[in-house]
Amino acid sequence: MKDSHKAIWLKRKKLGRSRYLIMFGIVPWGIGAAILTTLLEYISFQSVNSAWIPIRLIVFAFIGFFVANGRWVAMEYRFEPPAPRRP
Hints:
The chain contains 3 helices and no strands. It is mainly α.
């Protein structure tokens, strides 16, 4: 693995887990996917059902949370030595 990848991970780890989940999971996935699906709805049907927008934001924010959490765990596992196991 490249040292630049590890440096990026250490920089992001300094943010803390909660902030990382918000900045790299909830916000980009929640808002980005909600905007994308709303645009697709508008292109397909030439109208937007406003009742679906908050539902999309909530659902995609949950998806983003789990994606970012999985990435956090994977990066910890990849770049950090395993903790000593207790007998």
